[in-house]
Recover the amino acids of this structure.
C-alpha cells in the first residue's frame, strides 16, 4: 500500500513539474582548469551533462528544454576555442540523430546560424527538418544567440510588416513581438537554471523569462546530473507563482 501511495505521489509531483525549462550551462572552462585540462575537455564533458539533462527532461514529461550553448558574446573567445566548439557541435549533431529519432525529440537551433560555416548550417537545417514532425520533447539549442539580438530581429520583422501594410501599428501588442521571437509558438519559460555559481542572466531569453522562476547552483555544468536537476525542480514546485497578481 505504501509503495502504491509513493507512486501516486510521484505522479502528482510530475504534474507540477515545469513544462519549459531553460538552462544556462556555465562552468565548462572552470571545470577543465580545476582538473588541469584544456578548456575543450570541459566542453566535451559538458556535452555528456547535456545528454543527462535531456534524458531527465524526457523521464519527467517536460515539453520543452532550452539550452544556452553559445552566446553572441562567446564570439569574443579565442579562435581555437570557437573552432573546437563548432567541431563539437557538428559531432553532437551527427552522433545524436539516432537518439533524436528514438526518443521522438524535435530539435530546433535558435540564434543567428549564419555565423557558422556552411557545413554546420547545412547539418542544422537537415536535422531540424528531419525532426520537425517529432511530437515528444522540443529541444532548443541556443547557439550564437543573444536575448537582445532576438528582440531586435523580432522588431525588424514587425517593422517590415507595418511598411508593407500587413500590420497596423495600433495592432502591435506584447504577443505581436512574441510571435516573431525565435521561440514563437512555444510555451513560456517556467524555470531558468544557471550552473557555475554566477547569478545573472547573461543576455539569455530576456523577453521570454519575464515571470520565470530562477534557480542558481554552484555546480559546474560538467558535474550537472539528475540530482541537481531534481533540486531545481523541487525548488520550482515549492514556489507560489502569482505573475504579478495577488495570492489566491
Amino acid at each position: 500500500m505504501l509503495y502504491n501511495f509513493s507512486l501516486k505521489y510521484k505522479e502528482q509531483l510530475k504534474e507540477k513539474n515545469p513544462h519549459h525549462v531553460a538552462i544556462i550551462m556555465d562552468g565548462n572552462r572552470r571545470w577543465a582548469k580545476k582538473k588541469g585540462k584544456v578548456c575543450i575537455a570541459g566542453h566535451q564533458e559538458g556535452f555528456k551533462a547535456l545528454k543527462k539533462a535531456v534524458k531527465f527532461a524526457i523521464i519527467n514529461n517536460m515539453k520543452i528544454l532550452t539550452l544556452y550553448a553559445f552566446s553572441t558574446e562567446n564570439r569574443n573567445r579565442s579562435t581555437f576555442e570557437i573552432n573546437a566548439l563548432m567541431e563539437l557541435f557538428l559531432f553532437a549533431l551527427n552522433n545524436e540523430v539516432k537518439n533524436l529519432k528514438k526518443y521522438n525529440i524535435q530539435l530546433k537551433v535558435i540564434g543567428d546560424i549564419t555565423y557558422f560555416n556552411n557545413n554546420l548550417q547545412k547539418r542544422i537545417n537537415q536535422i531540424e527538418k528531419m525532426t520537425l514532425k517529432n511530437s515528444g520533447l522540443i529541444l532548443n539549442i541556443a547557439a550564437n544567440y543573444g536575448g537582445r539580438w532576438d528582440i531586435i530581429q523580432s522588431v525588424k520583422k514587425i517593422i517590415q510588416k507595418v511598411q508593407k501594410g500587413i500590420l497596423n501599428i495600433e495592432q502591435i501588442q506584447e504577443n505581436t513581438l512574441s510571435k516573431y521571437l525565435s521561440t514563437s509558438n512555444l510555451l513560456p519559460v517556467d524555470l531558468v537554471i544557471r550552473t557555475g555559481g554566477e547569478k545573472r542572466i547573461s543576455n539569455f531569453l530576456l523577453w521570454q523569462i519575464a515571470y520565470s522562476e530562477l534557480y542558481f547552483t554552484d555546480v559546474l555544468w560538467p558535474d550537472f546530473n539528475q540530482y541537481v536537476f531534481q533540486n531545481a525542480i523541487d525548488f520550482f514546485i515549492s514556489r507560489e507563482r502569482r505573475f504579478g497578481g495577488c495570492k489566491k
Notes: The first helix runs from residue 2 to 15. The first strand starts at residue 20 and ends at 24. The chain has one domain: 17-147+188-238.
